[in-house]
Design brief:
Structural class: alpha+beta
Shape: elongated
Strand content: 35-45%
Number of strands: 26
Order of helices and strands: HEEEEEEEEEEEEEEEEEEEEEEEEEEHH
Length: 404
């Protein structure tokens, strides 16, 4: 004859009472030191929980496990509740261990181990069930994004208990300035958490990997991660690289226009001094490269490279100066500034000397008459010559002489 589950449960409860009465009559004194020992258990939802009750000193007194609803699960080695998830692990006078597989959130609560002494002694074990967060998802990204636009990426996960933690990373570098929101789910046991990353799109973010990382104690140190690769469109960045840092007449030079943008810039445009290249035979454009052969002074000027894509355009310039190979470029020559200074000093001193000499001559200018007169040298003696000379002064021309 098969007993109904309710009748079977009452049967085991009656057996427990009878055992308790018998234990009271026969072993009242020896049971005073007996006490069941249990431990709290934490298990991940869907896992297996092991509940163990031990008695160090037991004189054949029965042990029993019951659930938070006070339903008997096992009485010694007898299963009382028909639940295929509950199994007996070990049953002896000193231990009663059971397991609960495929644990759900509803299994959480306080379980009781009873030792049927007089009075009955009990020990409580709390079963904590961790809710595993769902795999996170990143929303809010539309590809592509133009440089300078504001981006708001949201990472969301549900079903965690307790609430999960969300962290953001950009190329493995954590981003701290984010918003966090926690909401209780409809079952009032688990939580939905979300976090928002808000930033302005920058060309340096193109190709960057943004990841949302969910950490939770139920994940056994293996976080759940959602990733998003950013695609940022931006105007070209242009740079000219020269193959010759000191171009000379007769040599050649290669100017390379490096342009980076997204989408990829179209073929670049080369101009000279605001117009077309003047000598297509010597100035050859091949893609982004401008080659100029047999350089001469007429090639001096400003060369511009311009690149554009659907987002915009940008340009840069290179000033070409062709040097004379006979100009002793790079050699140490006389200091022309010093020589010029010396020449200036010499000229200044010379001018000063001329001015001083002129002023001196002006101050000492005069006239005098000679004592020579026509016929004086024919006089017989000196007195006669003097008289003749004085007489001749009246009609004689004055002879002017300057002296210093």
């Amino acid at each position: 004859m098969r007993l109904k589950p309710g009748a079977l449960l009452r049967f085991y409860s009656l057996c427990g009472i009878l055992v308790q009465v018998a234990a009271t009559k026969n072993k009242g004194r020896g049971s005073q030191g007996q006490f069941p020992l249990t431990q709290n258990v934490t298990v991940v939802e869907g896992g297996t929980a092991n509940l163990t009750c031990r008695v160090d000193q037991n004189d054949n007194t029965s042990l029993q496990w019951s659930n938070p609803a006070q339903q008997t699960l096992y009485f010694d080695d007898k299963k009382a509740l028909r639940d295929n998830r509950i199994e007996l692990v070990r049953a002896s006078w000193h231990e009663l261990s059971i397991s609960v597989s495929d644990v759900s959130l509803s299994d959480e609560g306080q379980y009781t181990c009873s030792l049927f002494t007089m009075p009955v002694k009990t020990s409580k074990a709390f079963l904590t069930v961790l809710g595993v967060p769902e795999k996170p998802q990143i929303t809010g990204f539309t590809s592509p994004v133009m440089e300078g636009e504001r981006m708001q990426l949201t990472c969301k996960t549900s079903g965690s208990k307790p609430a999960a933690d969300i962290r953001w990373f950009k190329n493995d570098k954590e981003v701290k300035d984010v918003k966090y929101l926690k909401e209780e789910d409809e079952n009032r046991k688990t939580f939905t958490v979300s976090s928002t990353l808000d930033f302005l799109a920058d060309r340096n973010d193109d190709g960057a990997v943004v990841s949302c990382r969910v950490d939770h104690e139920s994940l056994n140190s293996t976080p759940q991660i959602a990733m998003q690769v950013l695609e940022i469109h931006y105007t070209p960045l242009v740079k000219i690289i020269s193959s010759n840092s000191w171009p000379e007449e007769g040599q050649s030079i290669v100017l390379t226009c490096e342009s980076k943008g997204k989408p990829m810039p179209e073929p670049v445009l080369w101009t000279k001094d605001g117009g077309e290249l003047p000598d297509p035979e010597r100035m050859v454009v091949n893609g982004r490269v401008l080659s100029i052969s047999f350089l001469n002074k007429t090639d001096n000027g400003t060369y511009r490279c311009e690149a554009k894509n659907p987002i915009g355009r940008n340009s840069t310039e290179y000033v070409l100066i062709v040097h004379d190979p006979n100009g002793f470029a790079g050699q140490t020559g006389p200091d022309h500034a010093l020589i010029g200074g010396i020449v200036a000093v010499v000229v200044f001193v010379t001018l000063c000397s001329i001015i001083l000499l002129g002023r001196y001559l002006a101050r000492h200018k005069g006239t005098y008459l000679t004592n020579e007169a026509k016929g004086a040298e024919d006089a017989p003696d000196a007195d006669t010559a003097i008289i003749n000379a004085e007489g001749s002064q009246v009609n004689a021309e004055e002879k002017k002489e300057y002296f210093i």
